[in-house]
Design brief:
The complex is a heterodimer. Chain A is mainly beta. Helix content of chain A is about 0%, strand content about 50%. Chain A contains no helices and eleven strands. In chain A, strands 2, 4, 5, 6, 9, 10 and 11 form a seven-stranded mixed β-sheet that branches. A four-stranded antiparallel β-sheet of chain A has the order 1-3-8-7, with no helix packed on it. In chain A, β9 and β10 form a beta hairpin. Chain B has no helices and eleven strands. The termini of chain B are far apart. Classes of the chains: A mainly beta, B mainly beta. The interface between A and B is medium-sized, with 23 and 21 residues.
Chain lengths: ~120, ~110
């Protein structure tokens, strides 16, 4: 089945630094990928939609300058948390849709636990 | 916009049956998903309903009524490993998957 690889799985950084998270579709092409954030004991909140070759579209309340998204190829999207602060500590998950596979089902990466000190 | 409601917590006994309900309001409907999520892990796909009725997959079944904006996930022969969060999610016409708050299910011996 389709696999989405997400790295790193866990990162600890100092406040003020930037962190890049990669999301790769391993055996299918994904023109669209999605980035979610999840705080403890809460559900997944959609942050943005990453579109290959064009700008990402952000959900209301998500700062585009803080969460930079790049989707340079059909198999890779990156999320960069710039100038991270402790309140950015969260579980970040990407997902991708297999366009050839009917398009309904999203495949999720394994998630990245970000801890900002 | 969308609004999705599901109970926050449920408790059930090993071997029993549990039904987790989900009600929703949406301006555009393209399907409803159920996912299972263990703490610190990515969601795992359980079911997808786009037409009314019951979809059965082994111990798990999912039901949808579009006119009522209602779905449920039915888990039979509960096992301890079924303790997890169960997420109801709407696939809207914009192609986005929007999640409900999740239902934390605890299965007790």
């Amino acid at each position: 089945g389709a696999v989405v690889s997400q790295h790193p799985s866990r990162v600890i950084c100092k406040s003020g630094t930037s962190v890049k998270i990669e999301c790769r579709s391993l055996d299918f092409q994904a023109t669209t990928m999605f980035w979610y954030r999840q705080f403890p004991k809460q559900s997944l909140m959609l942050m943005a939609t990453s579109n290959e070759g064009s700008k990402a579209t952000y959900e209301q309340g998500v700062e585009k300058d803080k969460f930079l998204i790049n989707h340079a190829s059909l198999t890779l999207s990156t999320l960069t948390v710039t100038s991270a602060h402790p309140e950015d500590s969260s579980f970040y998950i990407c997902s991708a849709r297999d366009q050839k596979g009917g398009g309904e089902k999203l495949f999720f990466g394994s998630g990245t636990q970000l801890s900002v000190l | 916009g969308q609004n999705i409601d599901q109970p926050t917590e449920m408790t059930a006994t090993e071997g029993a049956i549990v039904q987790i309900n989900c009600t929703y309001q949406t301006s555009g409907f393209n399907g409803l998903f159920w996912y299972q999520q263990h703490a610190g892990e990515a969601p795992t796909f359980l079911s997808y309903n786009v037409l009314d009725g019951l979809e059965e997959k082994g111990r798990f079944s999912s039901f949808l009524s579009r006119s009522k904006g209602y779905s449920y996930l039915l888990l039979k022969e509960l096992q301890m490993k079924d303790s997890a969060s169960y997420l109801c999610a709407l696939y809207n016409q914009g192609g986005k998957l929007i999640f409900g708050q999740g239902t934390e299910l605890s299965v007790k011996p």
